[in-house]
Amino acid sequence: MLQLYIGNKNYSSWSMRAWVLLRQAGIPFEEKLIRFDGFDSQSEFKRTMTAISPTGTVPLLRDGDISVWDSLAIAEYAAEQFPDKQLWPQDKAARASARSICAEMHGGFTALRSACPMNIEADLAEVGRIVWRDNAAVRKNVERLCSMWSHLLAQHGGPMLFDQFSIADAYYAPVCSRLKTYQLPVPGEIAAYIERVHQLPGVKAWIDAALAEQDFVAVDEPYRAER
């Protein structure tokens, strides 16, 4: 069986992408959660992951002797190993678009990711109001997200970005969580898409587990001193 190494569900957006993709697609895997206790070389997390991954980070997918240590590479590997799951859109043009927006997420939206780190169980609406007021780069990131999602939902008819659930929706699920945690303003159609993503069984299972963790990791908490 596949093994997927992840970090805390409350905080680890990159882990969420791979986990949600496999869970929502019905691909069996064994979860290996390595708690975040710090990211320096002496932390238990870093010692554990460095022993099994060349990057020392999560997520990491292991399939027998094969290791895949990047979330986008994991998505591609899953699509290749399980073609019947149709993880990418079947239409060539749509598939190219889906790959492009996943790559854009992978290397972009740095302002939003930096100012609004994922924290599923927190209510950071007040922080979100300040970030929205003071950070033009975050506003620009959200504007791009809304434009992208609106175009794809109109083009493919919803309910997901490319009609059916795909890698693209798994890839943007943590962004949906951020927008909700920080209550950043988005148009109604985008808010509706965010709610549909949150109601996907795979996403809901991740969120429920994140809420059940009851684990406060100070290194991942720039805005709170306690739960």
UniProtKB/TrEMBL annotation:
TM regions (residue ranges): none
Ranges in a coiled coil: none
Stored CDD domains: GST_C_3 (cd03194), GST_N_1 (cd03043)
Domain GST N-terminal: residue ranges: 2-86
UniProt-listed Pfam families: GST_C_2, GST_N_2
PANTHER family named among the record's database cross-references: MALEYLACETOACETATE ISOMERASE
Protein name as catalogued: Glutathione S-transferase family protein
Native source species: Comamonas sediminis
